[in-house]
């Protein structure tokens, strides 16, 4: 991408080619990632339709496709020698090899019967691994349209007055947040990692975005709402969850460990002169478009990055995710952990306080678990569980392995601390939001 100096040094009238280079790929990227389209009675973004189409085209072979990616992901750190770097890399290399075994069990039906319960290996493999294995590489093909031709920089300058004071991130991070909510956290993380590697996010900014904005998509929120019987108040659930997620992020960025992370970067956003924000955004976007590589080169780079991320994520989802689900279902660990959250719920006088606190703790293993555990609870507890499932952002079955597969310097310990803070704050806000939704929606 163009440097800050290049991006702002366009005093001459831009050529038509440069203007088209800014707008045509960017507009196509917006349509693919952000505009819902109805096809065959199903309304979602075009990227999601492509993933659905690709899975239908693969049919039963989609499982073998996922297995191939998982095997490649287990072999990659061995072939590259990454397992020698440190203890964390060695541990995750072992976990990735275990992920191959778990994937083989999922495909063949081999192994202990309790692992083949519907909410164990079948859930991980069919509902998480195969979709993520498709959406990351397919999304990477079109990612260049969003991040390589000036849209990121143009939008970034425009929304600086909102993003920086509230969330302490550059304006361009708004693209990451929207991509996560309408597409997938894996796509949001792919954007964040690419921009961080380019030196345009600091370590702290990338960590804030990865742990605060890269939550599950709106389409997955519908599954949560259906499970908790909240579709009658869908709009209230969606918007209150969105607001709570970003309020929690605004608070979390001001607390350790995020507040103490390195904030240096090589190539930050240009600051707009008062009264000239639009012209600065326009010049910045055009500068990047003018210096941008050809579309085939950008696509090739992003596809390579996407495939590397996909093979890094999938084995960890299988092994770490399976371990988390087994611990949640067959041990009292999350029940014990849940008592730490009990005061944040009990303060509101909720009858299901203990159950909600323990269900929220289980979300560390898999974000869908609180919804499953609270499906029969009273309305307010169900609503709060649905909010926390999304606003917690971090869980071991998928998003945490995704973050650990990026270049963002976040350890498992830091991630767990951030998760705890997010869940505690989310519960403080989600329970009164549930009472509000009950009053407004008649739940």
Description:
It is a single chain. This protein has 443 residues and is mainly α. The chain is 70% helix and 2% strand. It contains 21 helices and two strands. It has helices at 4-8, 16-34, 46-58, 61-80, 87-108, 121-147, 151-167, 173-182, 185-197, 203-212, 218-227, 234-252, 277-291, 295-330, 333-338, 342-346, 353-362, 369-373, 379-391, 399-404, 412-441, and strands spanning 36-39, 42-45. A two-stranded antiparallel ribbon has the order 1-2. Helix 7 packs across helix 13 (277-291).
Termini separation comes to: 50 Å
Q: Give the radius of gyration.
A: 22 Å
Q: Assess the beta-strand content as a share of residues.
A: under 5%
Give the number of helices. Answer: 21
Give the proportion of residues in helices.
over 70%
Class by helix and strand content? mainly alpha
Average residue pLDDT: 86
The tally of beta strands, per DSSP, is 2
**Succession of helices and strands:** HHEEHHHHHHHHHHHHHHHHHHH
Shape: globular
Strand order of the largest sheet: 1-2
What's this entry about, in short?
70% of the residues lie in helices and 2% in strands. The protein is an all-alpha fold and 443 residues long.
Give keywords.
mainly alpha; 443 residues; single chain; 70% helix; 2% strand; 2 strands; globular
């Amino acid at each position: 991408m163009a440097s800050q100096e290049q991006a702002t040094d366009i005093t001459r009238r831009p050529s038509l080619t440069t203007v088209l280079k800014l707008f045509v790929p960017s507009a196509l990227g917006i349509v693919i990632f952000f505009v819902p389209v109805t096809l065959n009675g199903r309304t979602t973004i075009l990227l999601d339709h492509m993933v659905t189409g690709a899975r239908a085209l693969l049919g039963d072979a989609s499982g073998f496709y996922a297995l191939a990616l998982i095997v490649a992901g287990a072999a990659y750190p061995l072939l590259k020698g990454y397992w020698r770097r440190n203890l964390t890399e060695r541990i995750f290399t072992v976990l990735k090899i275990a992920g191959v075994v778990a994937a083989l069990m999922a495909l063949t039906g081999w192994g202990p019967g309790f692992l083949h319960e519907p909410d164990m290996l079948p859930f991980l493999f069919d509902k998480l691994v195969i979709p993520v294995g498709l959406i990351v590489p397919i999304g990477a093909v079109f990612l260049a349209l969003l991040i390589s031709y000036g849209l990121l920089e143009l939008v970034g300058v425009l929304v600086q007055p909102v993003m920086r004071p509230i969330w302490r991130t550059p304006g361009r991070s708004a693209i990451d947040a929207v991509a996560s909510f309408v597409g997938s956290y894996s796509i949001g993380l792919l954007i964040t990692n690419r921009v961080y590697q380019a030196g345009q996010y600091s370590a702290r900014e990338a960590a804030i975005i990865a742990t605060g904005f890269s939550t599950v998509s709106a389409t997955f929120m519908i599954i949560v709402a259906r499970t908790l019987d909240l579709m009658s108040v869908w709009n209230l659930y969606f918007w209150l969850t969105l607001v709570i997620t970003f309020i929690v992020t605004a608070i979390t960025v001001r607390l350790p460990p995020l507040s103490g992370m390195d904030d240096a970067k090589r190539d930050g956003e240009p600051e707009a002169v008062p009264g000239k924000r639009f012209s600065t955004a326009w010049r910045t976007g055009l500068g990047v478009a003018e210096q941008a590589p050809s579309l085939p080169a950008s696509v090739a780079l992003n596809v390579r990055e996407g495939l590397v991320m996909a093979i890094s994520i999938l084995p960890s989802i299988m092994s770490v995710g399976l371990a988390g689900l087994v611990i949640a279902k067959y041990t009292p660990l999350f029940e014990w952990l849940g008592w730490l959250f009990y005061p944040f719920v009990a303060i509101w006088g909720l009858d299901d306080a203990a159950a909600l606190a323990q269900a929220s703790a289980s979300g560390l293993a898999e974000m869908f678990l609180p919804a499953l555990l609270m499906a029969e609870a009273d309305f307010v507890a169900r609503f709060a569980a649905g909010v926390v499932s999304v606003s917690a952002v971090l869980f071991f079955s998928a998003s945490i392995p995704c973050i650990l597969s990026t270049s963002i310097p976040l350890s498992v310990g830091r991630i767990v601390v951030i998760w705890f803070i997010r869940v505690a704050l989310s519960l403080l806000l989600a329970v009164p939001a549930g009472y509000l939704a009950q009053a407004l929606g008649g739940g």
